[in-house]
């Protein structure tokens, strides 16, 4: 009856003032408190049934439990990547995280060595990813994944297409892995487990490394390590190649070379023609990306990032994230060198 009354009232509103279908769904959610009653959810359930042969009544029962989370909508609007580099790096480049990384490496040395052998990704990069993502499993998130993905799919229009796809992948992976979709917990964006894989990443890159017939990225360190390594390998990690090197500028005529694209787009020779000094010798025909990182009261820190840095940004499309991973990996590697 409430839904009928809302529709009747909307029909009496002049066309110019009427809500879009998406806005109407948000209004209906706020009035009923039940996401299952919205047209967008009904349509999604029908699609999952037609496309993947899900039982509609089971999905209706599942969405009966789903809640739109306002705190998730607030978090998605202010990600940590919006911080300047000098503040962002302080979150991840801490002695506690470095020490935890050294300990994680020592505790999982055989799996890390095996993953490097199979996928070509060095242990320090794998360890740093897990350290940045969840502090080695300590911060895997406390939102139900079904709530997080549904909130962003049905109540966050700027990314609804992406999160609808992730919700679809989540239900598929739960069916494939025999997981109750109401159970998994994750981040406010629906990322899961120690490596914080989105559902599509889980389906494409998660690995059962110890052959126990489960891809467990929540509790099985072997699977976690191999899954991260596989992700990097599938995104064309180049074994043994340089990741990034510091750059010094004589003048500011380099600024036109800075842009928002992350893929290497300049030859080393081109950088040098801009009066930039690269701290390590690289082949003149190597392609690099010139990146600038804001320092507190010290201007900009410049780096030449190569293909492997770009691969790190495939995990999280932020140069701040990739630089934090890279610098954490170096700190962990250096500190581990003083331990057996």
Topology at a glance:
Elements: H1 2-11, H2 21-32, H3 39-52, H4 56-64, H5 70-76, H6 85-92, H7 95-107, H8 109-119, H9 123-134, E1 143-144, H10 145-155, H11 160-177, E2 185-186, H12 199-205, H13 221-234, E3 244-249, E4 266-267, H14 268-273, E5 276-278, E6 287-294, E7 300-305, H15 307-315, H16 319-336
Antiparallel strand pairs: 1-2, 3-5, 3-7, 4-6, 6-7
Helix pairs in contact: 3-4, 6-16, 7-9, 7-16, 8-13, 9-13, 9-16, 10-11, 11-12, 12-13, 15-16
Oligomer: single chain
Read across the widest sheet, the strand sequence of neighbours is 4-6-7-3-5
Order of helices and strands: HHHHHHHHHEHHEHHEEHEEEHH
The biggest sheet amounts to:
5 strands, antiparallel
Please provide the count of β strands.
7
Low-confidence stretches: 1-22
Tally of DSSP helical segments: 16
Structural class: alpha+beta
Integer average pLDDT: 91
- Cα distance spanning the termini: 70 Å
Strand content: 5-15%
Describe the protein.
By secondary structure, the protein is of the alpha+beta class. The chain has a domain at 1-65. Helices cover 53% and strands 9% of the residues. It contains 16 helices and 7 strands. It has helices at residues 2-11, 21-32, 39-52, 56-64, 70-76, 85-92, 95-107, 109-119, 123-134, 145-155, 160-177, 199-205, 221-234, 268-273, 307-315, 319-336; strands at residues 143-144, 185-186, 244-249, 266-267, 276-278, 287-294, 300-305. The strands form 2 sheets. The chain has a 5-stranded antiparallel β-sheet with strand order 4-6-7-3-5. Strand 6 and strand 7 (300-305) form a beta hairpin. Helix 6 (85-92) crosses helix 16 and helix 9 (123-134) packs across helix 16 (319-336). The longest helix has 18 residues, at 160-177. Residues 1-22 have low confidence and may be disordered. One of its GO terms (biological process) is peptidoglycan catabolic process. It holds the Pfam family SLT_2. This is Membrane-bound lytic murein transglycosylase B. The active site is at 133. One of its GO terms (molecular function) is peptidoglycan lytic transglycosylase activity.
